[in-house]
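Notebook entry, structure prediction.
Reason for the run: the old model in the group folder had no record of what sequence produced it. Starting over properly, with the input documented here first.
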Amino acid sequence: MTAQPAERTADFDDFYAATAKKMVAVVFAVTGDLGEAEDAVQEAYARAWTRWDALTAEGDPTPWVRTVALRLAVSTWRKARNRMRAHFRHGPPADAPALAPDRVALVDALRTLGDDQRTAVVMHHLLDLPVDEIARETGVSSAAVRTRLSRGRKALGAKLREEPEPADPDRARHDRRPIREVPLHG
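New structure, fully documented this time:
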């Protein structure tokens, strides 16, 4: 039995309002690009709307929308990797909001992970999804998810523990060992 058009619209609107912000945050954590995350999530919700009756008949549509958004984002992210590098070389766009240093460090560290590890870490730690559900959504075994989580956490820990370069160039100069002078003549 399908819902009346007004009911269907209201159900979808409520679902969107309750889940969209978190969905963008998750996809952003996986891709590291807010614009790409927003685009992928928007497309996933548009696709969900066309299948809304079937999705709600099966239960909670959230995993379906998340899976579609992540697949779209990762696919787009792979295709746009070189374009993103070019943008980073030229600096962020003028209207980009400033991010907290911790958030920047986390996003940078997440970017160093492979797609599979990054997806597992984000789904488990940002969404609080259990390993079995991540396995179902990504189509791999629970053991594979546990391995990806373990390796991903280890890599993130190592990356986040790295010492940053000193901000003060004078201090950096004093921290280096002096260069030993070598005479030019024997």
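Summary: The longest helix spans residues 5-31.
The old model has been moved to the deprecated folder.
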